[in-house]
Amino acid sequence: xxxxxxxxLSSGLFCVGLYGLLTRRNAIGILLSIEVMANAANxxxxxxxxxxxxxxxxVFALFVLALTVAEVAVGLALVMALFRSHRDALVELASAFxx
Amino acid sequence: MTPGFIIAxxxxxxxxxxxxxxxKLVHAVLWLGxxxxxxxxxxxxxxxxxxxxxxxxxxxxxxxxxxIFGVMLTKKSGDGExxxxxxxxxxxxxxxxxxxxLLAGGIFSMTNGAPALQKPEEVASIAAxxxxxxxxxxxxxxxxxxxxxxxxxxxxxxxxxxxxESGKASPR
Amino acid sequence: xxxxxxxxxxxxxxxxSATALALWYERKLAARMQTRIGPQFxxxxxxxxxVADLLKLVQKEEIVPMGADxxxxxxxxxxxxxxxxxxxxxxxxxxxxxxxRSDVGVLLVIGFGGLAMVPVWMAGxxxxxxxxxxxxxxxxxxxxxxxxxxxLAAMVPVILAGTMDLDGITQFQAxxxxxxxxxxxxxxxxxxxxLLAMLAESNRIPFDxxxxxxxxxxxxxxxxxxxxxxxxxxxxxxxTVVGAAIGSVMFLGGWDGPFAxxxxxxxxxxxxxxxxxxxxxxxxxxxxxxxxxxxxxxxxVPAGLGLVFLSAAWNQTGxxx
Lengths: 99, 172, 321
Description:
B: mainly alpha; 70% helix; C: mainly alpha; 12 helices; globular
């Protein structure tokens, strides 16, 4: 395995996530796509740290993990609020997301 | 390119495609779990076992569980299929393929295409790095997590929560 | 490589046969506690009762309920067993030998423990049954909550030994002291916390609300028949056996013991913990779902944080060197 293969895989993964982000209408589906993209970024961090020798890659990947968890928690809370007011989790319903 | 890497890469890629394409949300969540778990396998191959463990614990055990909860709590009675209309699907395909082409072009034109493997990081050195050099980021992250927790609780609470509400302990 | 593979096969066989023995042992134990005799007809003192049970389960018809998600329904029970077995690979069997030796063994073991929730949830969801779904939701909530005190309790031996390698932890205990006994203050409470959280993670009484038979029929296993049911049932026992083994490795010194250290000590300690777990199972009553959450978030998590703090403080004193 070499660096280019890892980078290619992670860019492919990122683009798949992007595709999901653009096509999903369900809010949870969008969150899932964002997870795919974050995972691609993480893969990049780990691969670069493995081939550069500088010890920051894994540290950054750890930070990304923590950030993603926070994002999922807030995102799901938003989805819950959306579902409670509209009885559905489609994102276009959130155009009037005020109270 | 070891066979282990190829297998893991194919698994990750296939699972990610199923994650964004599958027409049932539950299946999409499970495919996401499969993708995250196979990424953990790849991390082990990249000599990052600590990150693989964290990935299993936090992503598969935590994030996926949260997602499962989200799916179950926002389920409409009688729904099932998630449909994607063909126009946005085509648009998304074109955009993401274009981005992939751009990225792949960049990757293949890297001047230092195949750097040598370096010494793998030790767990202790990661810990020293997190708590030593990056302590400020670490502390900021804990504040962020706290803020996210408070925010999530506030958002997910019922609006009329001021009064002694009826369903205090019951899952909504 | 060949050694590791044959060791892995041996561990799988040993864990599975230990589980079969555990089934018999539990039934005997439970019977004695209730002044019964327990299984006694199949084989000497009923030893082959698990085999008879297995044969019975295999013969039964497998029914897939109408409206079930067929793929997930079929996939979930074997996955439960696989995930439960996976954690056994990291247990150090005798000095320096485990199927998989990893620098972060503790983390991976707990990760696999958390993973075990996924097929349970799959089973409940795919069954298309309200009791199964309720059970699945409870399993998920329980697993995600009790993962926190489990990690905190596991942090204590990690901090005290200064390594996340399970064999390293055992080695440290062999040269210094068993963490369950000394230092008594973070050690023993952490051991109890670990046991409680592990019981909750493997859905055992007093934490078996996902399959509370008095309110949820049989929880996630409601719709399962034959060997599919057998798999889920088996996985629970495997989970308990492996959990007891991990507990004895992390807090009771694993293979360490007087005279000759080795596998027999690990087995003995695992058996003791297992007996203790089943003693609890046949003595205590089940908690209610909200009591379970209260116990976790209001008592166990703060206690775990305090224990982590105390063990760090103990390390600072330098008395363990």
